[in-house]
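Notebook entry, structure prediction.
Reason for the run: the old model in the group folder had no record of what sequence produced it. Starting over properly, with the input documented here first.
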Amino acid sequence: MASNIIPETYDPIVKLLEDAADGAHTHGAAIGLKQNDEPALRAEITKLAGTKAGPGNVPPATPGLKDKWNMAKAAKKATSDAFDLAKQFGRALARASIGVLKPRLGNQWNAQWSAAGFTNNSLAVPDNPMVMLQQFRTYFSANPAQEVPNLSPTISATSAACDTAAEAISSKGSLSNQANVDAGLAKSALEAGLASARARLGGLRDELDQLIGDDDERWYAFGFNKPSDPETPEEPENIVVTPGGPGSHMLFIDWDDARRAASYRVIIMTLPGVELKNEIVSESEATYNDLPPGQVKITIAARNSKGGESAPSAPVTATVP
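New structure, fully documented this time:
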């Protein structure tokens, strides 16, 4: 018998929710669906996927948990990049300031460097030079005659420049830290939303099991398999092969999703019968750009999550350019 395992990841969960909500809209009243009806299912979709904007942006779009996670990831990267740039500039300014002071304090660390804040027997510039820049700020403020403005178009070894660079590192670091926290919270919220959706879909499956028979065609309307179906997937259909440009050695192969399929086996053979490809793919499409030119025969078999395979599709012939 075919199983109806609730998917784990976002895309298949939302697809199943959409199918289930459509099925509940069409058949819910007739079969007496109560606990997991269309409004309950669509509420899960809205929570995960948000809503699109109305005409003229009225009402405006509302982001779902996946949108919020995507935005949080983007903000995390942007603020992390800005923090890295601030540290990078700060290190360049620190090295320039060290260079300015070497003729006065020595080319290597000695006790004179302690006045500039170098108390750890080293002139090495750390990955985060904020504290070092703060020390330079104090030193240059106390010794303004040793400041050298306009060392380059972007670098000035001055108290003010070191203060600005240290403050930039501090503020960019705070923003980056907060973005990391926000991303963690958004990820947790998305995971909780997916868990809620899976629970809702599991409840619908169990409710349908009580309301309709194992061989009722309406299982399909809700996005599920009929429990009476065989466990092996259906045979893939409607295989379309699109060749690439002249000399590309490329074929793009596309086919309809097969019911109960978790993956697909793609076999490509020359017409004399030499196997060129025998690969497992996760989507109902595949691209190959390293095939020898000439005619080939292509078959697709659907595979379930346990590795059980359907019969191969009817062969399709194509010419590799």
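Summary: The two ends are 44 Å apart (CA to CA).
The old model has been moved to the deprecated folder.
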